[in-house]
Amino acid sequence: MRGPGSGYVLFVGLRYSFSRKRNRFASVIALVSMLGMVLGVASLITVLSIMNGFSAELRERILALVPHGYVEPVAGNLNDWETVAEELIASPQVVAAAPYISDQVILAGPYLLRGAVLTGIEPNREAAVSRVGQSMTSGRLDDLATEPFTVVLGATLARTLGVGPGDTVQATLPKLTITPLGTFPRTRRLLVSGLFSVNAQPDSYQAYVSLATAQRLFGLGTGVDGVQVKTTDLMAAPRQLAQLAKTLPPGLQARDWSQTQGSLFQAVRMEKIMVGLLLLSVVAVAAFNIVSTLVMSVAEKRGDIAVLRTMGARSMGIMSIFVAHGLGLAATGITLGALVGITLATHIAAVSAWLERLLGVSLFDPTVYFISELPARLLWQDVAWVVGASLSLSLLATLYPAWRASRIAPAEVLRYE
């Protein structure tokens, strides 16, 4: 019998893992360890897929209204925005450009008032940089250009204010009007001409007026706050806008969506990492349960170890047998857990719908969570990461019991056999 590279190592190790002739208690411990691995791996893959689904939904809905980037003056307003827009569109990285004016206001309905972001746009140009026009649930975005002092509200904001198309809201602007009677905040009544909905947070604070209306409300004359930009690739927009900024005239700067919305997506990414680490602790507990399984197996197989040593097996060969023994159990649990996790991740919507029917409750109220079912997006790199981390933890868990097995002296064992 030769050293640890021989085929007997894997054969004996796997035979120990799946042999039926074992101590009943040791078999139960091994089964519990394997089931713990199945549960941990399946939970980790499923939850990471759900987190990916939420992140994708968030990005899809919020970035439906947010352009890829902005080009704006370092200070003051931009008066020659048409020239800047033409120069930007001439760049191979820019698909479209549209002017905008944006500021915070207070909107008042019949009974309530709420803070909002009022954005002035040119509807025909806006359609090229965002999908707000495609998100209209009532009215048309183009009506803003033909009817002055009209406003399009987010559906949630309109519901909060208690208004709908045809009603009016009073906008209180961050400007002051000086009269002989004193100084008063500037206010203006706006006619609600339409509603939009992207089923995300912007529905609760965003409002749109035409560019001409915004210029009159905020007293900007012919100026704008900047130009919205759509690039050739949303995910490459930070790099493309950074390159574009180097070619801009002095006094202009470029910002991309990751600077305006990046903190939100960074928080989602950090939450995914933290949840992954927490669930990985379940896998770690299951992996280190293998320690107890191997310790009992080493005690049970002392006679076998002594016989193998007398037949010429080296210490490293004995150690490799028990490493293979532990990894055999772990690999079985990891494989089953990965299959369960992948199945759950790809059918989580159907599973949640079945639970809703079974329990007679709505797990996700669309008015609260903006979703009606669990989104999930399975990424194979996540599966590879979970499987790799689980195997690594399992390998670490097998080292000490396997090393102890390799230190057993055959003479002491055979003396009492």
Automatic annotation (TrEMBL):
Pfam families per UniProt: FtsX, MacB_PCD
Start and end residues of each MacB-like periplasmic core domain: 31-233
Single GO cellular component term: plasma membrane protein complex
Similarity comment text for this entry: Belongs to the ABC-4 integral membrane protein family. LolC/E subfamily.
The keyword Lipoprotein belongs to this UniProt entry's keyword annotation: yes
Protein localization: Cell membrane
GO biological process, one term: lipoprotein transport
Protein source organism: Kineobactrum sediminis
Protein known as: Lipoprotein-releasing system transmembrane subunit, LolC/LolE family
Keyword terms, alphabetized: Cell membrane, Lipoprotein, Membrane, Transmembrane, Transmembrane helix, Transport
Record-annotated ABC3 transporter permease C-terminal domain positions: 278-410
Transmembrane region(s): 25-51, 273-298, 318-342, 383-403
